[in-house]
């Protein structure tokens, strides 16, 4: 699952970094903090430090019933066979319980993608946050 940098469809001035979870043509479902793509559970590498909050979801607006962060979908991701540039993607942050992602801002159009992350230079352990996890002490 690639990590991408893209422009927020709701605020084009804001760049976000998220992991692609669903590709064009996939059907995404979330049940009790497990993500299913086309009916199969995916290996989720999300940080488990923050718990999933069972909050109401804004996307899609035409959904039937009540969708939440823990009970989402099924959601088909549209696929345009004729023109790949018209496809969209479903993205989620690795901090699933606290992430401005496709559950709130919708599909990410191909044209909004600025690039792919190829290397992670710094990523604190799931149990630690900030520079303290690198052994760096703050000056007091």
Automatic annotation (TrEMBL):
PANTHER family cross-referenced by the UniProt entry: CHLOROPLAST PROCESSING PEPTIDASE, SIGNAL PEPTIDASE I
Organism: Phocaeicola sartorii
Keyword Coiled coil applies: no
Catalytic activity: Cleavage of hydrophobic, N-terminal signal or leader sequences from secreted and periplasmic proteins
CDD domains given in the database record: S26_SPase_I
Molecular functions per Gene Ontology: serine-type endopeptidase activity; signal peptidase activity
Ranges where the Peptidase S26 domain occurs: 2-121
UniProt subcellular location: Membrane
Any Pfam family matching the protein: Peptidase_S26
Protein name: Signal peptidase I
GO cellular component, one term: membrane
Enzyme Commission number(s) from the entry: 3.4.21.89
Example GO BP: signal peptide processing
Membrane topology: Single-pass type II membrane protein
Main location (coarse class): membrane
InterPro entries: LexA/Signal_pep-like_sf, Pept_S26A_signal_pept_1, Pept_S26A_signal_pept_1_Lys-AS, Peptidase_S26
Family the UniProt entry places it in: Belongs to the peptidase S26 family.
EC supergroup of this enzyme: hydrolase
Keyword annotations of the record: Hydrolase, Protease
SUPFAM superfamilies registered for this protein in UniProt: LexA/Signal peptidase (SSF51306)
């Amino acid at each position: 699952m690639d990590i991408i940098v893209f422009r927020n469809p709701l605020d084009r001035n804001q760049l976000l970094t998220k992991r692609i979870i669903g590709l064009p043509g996939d059907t995404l479902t979330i049940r009790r903090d497990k993500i299913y793509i086309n009916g199969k559970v995916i290996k989720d590498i999300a940080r488990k430090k923050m718990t999933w909050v069972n909050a109401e979801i804004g996307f899609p607006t035409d959904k039937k019933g009540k969708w939440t962060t823990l009970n989402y979908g099924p959601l088909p991701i549209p696929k345009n066979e004729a023109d790949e540039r018209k496809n969209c993607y479903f993205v989620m942050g690795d901090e699933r319980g606290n992430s401005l992602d496709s559950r709130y801002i919708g599909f990410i159009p191909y044209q909004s993608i600025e690039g792919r992350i190829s290397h992670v230079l710094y990523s604190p352990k799931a149990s630690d946050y900030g520079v303290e996890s690198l052994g760096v002490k703050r000056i007091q």
